[in-house]
Specification:
Blueprint: E1 3-7, E2 10-13, E3 18-25, E4 34-39, E5 46-51, E6 57-59, E7 67-72, E8 77-82, E9 91-97, E10 108-113
């Protein structure tokens, strides 16, 4: 069974940075299109970034130029480097496969204060 464990969230001031990690067990990140999602209170979960099997990356307009998705195949981990954070980035962040998602992990809370 695939497990997703997100970590790295926290409280940061606007303009700050955080690096999120998603440790995946039970499936190789290198063969999946993996994405980072976020869900703010009262809002739908949204996809903010994803990385394909060959390493192409895509970003939502709201995070383009500020967030970077990457992965370490040896560690089977997906990362999200978040810079120039804004209060609007406050949400619980999750990772998952884009198609046929695995069971969702617990997510990691990111809170950006103004």
């Amino acid at each position: 069974q695939v497990q997703l464990v997100e970590s790295g969230g926290g409280l940061v001031q606007a303009g700050g940075s955080l690096r999120l990690s998603c440790d995946v067990s039970g499936s190789r990140v290198s063969v999946n299109v993996m994405g980072w999602y976020r869900q703010a209170p009262g809002k739908e979960r949204e996809l903010v970034a994803h990385i394909t099997g060959i390493g192409n990356t895509f970003y939502a307009n709201s995070v383009k130029g500020r967030f970077t998705i990457s992965r370490d195949n040896a560690k089977n981990t997906v990362y999200l480097q978040m810079n120039s954070l804004k209060p609007a980035d406050t949400a619980v962040y999750y990772c998952n496969r884009l198609t046929s998602p695995f069971n969702w992990g617990q997510g990691t809370q990111v809170t950006v204060s103004s």
